[in-house]
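Entry 12.
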Amino acid sequence: MEREPLHPTHGTPHPALDRVRREGRWWWLQARHTRRVWRWAVLAAVAVFLLLVLVRRPLAEWFWDDSQIEQLLAEGDRALADGRLTAADGSGARERYQAVLALDGDRPLARQGLARTGAAALQQAHDHLQAGDLEGGARLLALARELQVPQAQTDAVAQQLLARRRAGAGVGALLAQARNAFAAGRLDEGESSALPLFQRVLALQPDNLSALEGREDALSDLLQHARTQAAQGALADASATVQRARQFDPGHPDLPATQEALARATDRRLRQAQHALQRRQLDAAADGFLAVLAVAADDPAAQRGREQTLQALLQRSQRHAEDFQFQAAEQDRGRAIALGASPLALQQDTQRVQRARVAQQALQQPGQGSVQRERQLRGHLAQMERAERAGQWISPPGHSAFDALREAQSVAPRDPRVRAAAARLLPASQRCFDDNLRQNRVQAAGACLQAWQTLAPTATALPAARTRLAQRWLAIGSERLGRGDVRFAAAAVDQVRQLQPDLAELPAFEQRLRQVGGQGD
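Predicted 3D structure (tokens):
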């Protein structure tokens, strides 16, 4: 056995060796303690994990609003006990239990409640049949099926219901009611009318000759009424009547003749609207084109007539505003809205009316005489001529020829010099639009188009110009969207909605913009 080295002088262990031994024992004890701590930590983590697995469902239920769920369950139980199985206001047993499942789809009590509600509905259906209430029994049977009562049980009650409905007394009563309704002229005005009653009989007995003959006679009268409506110009009502008749019997022999009569009446109303437009009877023209489009939305002649009438109404609204007849101008504006005027056209019409109101107020000011107005008018016209010579048709804002013309119109909208200046500026605005559009300067082209529309709101070339500008906005927006510029693409969509909201290419571009925007988010 080795002996410890002794101090050379005193024969005792060396102090340095003693310190090393003490420190080594401390580090060994520290490492041993650390290993014990880690073992306990691992055991604690495993215990927490197992605890979370075991109490996952109680925790989930705790996070839901248990008070609300318990209240809904209690209300559902009370409703079921009271026999209120379903209610339109949501207070029935079915609605309460379904509300619980909407909050927590794993609640077994709610599913059990729905099952008990279905069983109660089936029992009540049986009781109603025994009492002779066939309609009530049918409603409750439908509820039981919606609540997924076993098919074998519902089929048994359904057979009882069918047997009772097929009983001679039930069919005879329905036939009597149908004949009485037909004699009173009530053809299809509700479930107690002739056609629905005949249809119910045929649902029970498809070969019932009396019901077949009664339905055919009632449909003949109904289609005769549709032809009368068409002859009177009530095209939408006639079309709706034909649609209802087709639902009862799409093969009725009078249907082709009635559809032909409706088509002739539609063509006649279209010609009347076109003649009214030619005679500048804009109200009658607007009514006629809208009536035709209500039954033939894709008719190209009616669509063109509507657009022409719309532009004529906006022009007449402008004349009314210039003559300070603001009520008549507002009436024309309402007609234009009904015809589908674009937001941009309505905005421009509003601006014209506002300028006319300013002009009227200026005329009514006692301190401003004709001499002062003449001086102002000449100044605006002179500014317009200077802007024309400089080629400043639309810009800079506030100093362009178009801005000077608007100022002159606000002072004297009916002055011949102002109207002549407007006529002179019109070709320049058209050239401005074409030049800027050719260079893909869509915002500048839009400003030129606005000037063009203000100067000639009924110009025949305006719809095509708006379409061209809208398509160019989409083309540039598509290119910028491909480079990731979502903001510009969204601005392009806004511009197109103002210019041509029914542009065929717009929905696809909007869908693409939504997809790219969603990826960016």
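Annotation: Confidence is low (pLDDT under 50) at residues 6-10. Residues 172 and 201 are 9 Å apart (CA to CA).
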